[in-house]
Amino acid sequence: MKKILFLLIAAHGASSAFAQTADPNVNADSARTSFVNDSIQNSLDSMKSRIWAADSFLSRWVLDVNGLAGVLTHDITQANTFPNYTNGIKLNTGKLKFTNGMSYGGDIQLGYFFGNKAHFGVGTGFMYLYQTGDLTLDQFNVQYQSVDSRGNTFRQLITANRPVVEKLEITNMNIPLMLKYKNRFTKRIGFNMDLGILYNLQLTNVYKTNASFDYEAIYKYVPSTNGTDVAVYDNETNPSVNSLLITKDAINRLNNGNNVADTFNFHRNVRGRNVGLNQEPDKKDGSTSYTQGSVGFMAQPSLSIFFSDRVALNLGVYYMYQPFTNSAKSGYRLTDKVGEYTSVTSSVTSNIAQSYGGNLGLRYYLHKLKDSDGDGIPDKKDKCPNDSGALALQGCPDKDGDGIIDMEDSCVDVAGLPKFNGCPDTDGDEIPDKDDACPTKAGPLMFKGCPDSDGDYIPDREDDCPTVAGLPKFKGCPDTDGDGLPDKEDKCPNEYGPASNGGCPLPPPPPSKEKTERPDISTPILFDVNKTTINAVSFPVLETAIYELNEDVSSFIVIDGYTDNTGREAYNKVLSTRRANAVKAYLTTRGINGKRLQAVGHGINDPIADNSTIEGRAKNRRVIMSLKHGRGK
Question: Could you tell me the pTM of the whole model?
């Protein structure tokens, strides 16, 4: 993520810098500052726009409830039932066709997502489907050897008066075993894909038929050894002229079209023969079940619309493939006796069922991850779980918006650069403003970022004569005659003389006055909140330090910096060091060798007052100087 941030800063910054420097009216320093701020802001905006893509911020456990509706097709294979018709001739058992198939139902699944990004998971549950459709059998017509109720062998003819249709209501129950994928693109939109197998628990067909049949018979009689006629099976394609034809055509011819049905009823009811016209089954409905379980396949992509981090609506489509096998009923015949009927589903040996359509569902994220600071980032992903922040900053606050979290930002109140721990460099001299005595003018590090126009190694801001090389003790002004008085104040710049006489020679000066009483060197030097600037009231203490060091060349000073307890401990440690260094820097500018000064930061340690009060905290924001002896320059 940091690499992406820097690349975005560089790419955007290049175009910004070109646009700004191309205008001669734009100041170079302001252009540089604008470049940095714009780059940081644009990079952060880019990352913040993807805060809702973090699926790992959601519960790993989900409950999916889906409703399904679609089209159903069946590719059916029937058993070869010809051998079931004894000595059959002119057999046409028809071919099954499935039409008007529809599928309705739903499933409920419990899922779990794993991995750092929580994109992939697994799930299982229960699926119930209610399916409908029509099974149609066309042109059923068979002729075969049979025996009537009186034991006479004859030729049975059975013809369907119309296509045999079974209206099916199918109960289909399954256990889904799914591989799940999810990806949340924005706060409101995501994508899901469920892909896996379906283990079928039950497939039951409840049917209702419109079947109607004509049952006809042909009896052939031959003499027996005892002189009586015996009925035998007439298996000739064209029946023998001596055969008794109980067929619709034959009775029509015999009766001239009159009382045909009555004649068939007489033969059935009186003669015990299996004949009749337009005979419907005694029972027109029933059910069959496939006895062997199957393993199918299902794919279910959907678009997620998030109502919240706990609930999402899933809109999508599905495709389902289920192969079923079945043991066809032994000796299966669609019908044999008048009024009998066996469902066409009992002749099926295999069935490829496919369904496709739409799904509408809800996904419940079963629990909410702990988010102590309420920033939308769960504690286990939050670098600062008790301080609200953005995802791009690992959940940590960034008060100044520079893309550097406050706990790692040495300048939390102003936007800066990563290389300077969040502090700005307004003049671009590679010295952060907090350490730059001249933050708006470029200068070398040795002068804390201030320029030195006359090259006398005294920065212009401390140089009373910035255009003429001079001496540090005269704030950069020259002393041509070496009388200790700078030329600008020396009435006789080329003659040695005391300052009391304007640098001109005089008789010996009168005795010096008594030494002015000086404050104790250990008097605390106090600072304002979050500041390192030395207040004017502390200058006398610093002058005492300079005096003591000049009096004893073997002495040195230890400078201890402290803060109050406001803010983070790590930041206060840095702030106390900066305050100690500020005092050290002042003394070195007054001619004290830096080797005789030791600056140490102690942070919030060793308070001298109560940090719970404003007055106490003001006393604790301090630097204490201690004079030591025994070490020379």
Answer: 0.56
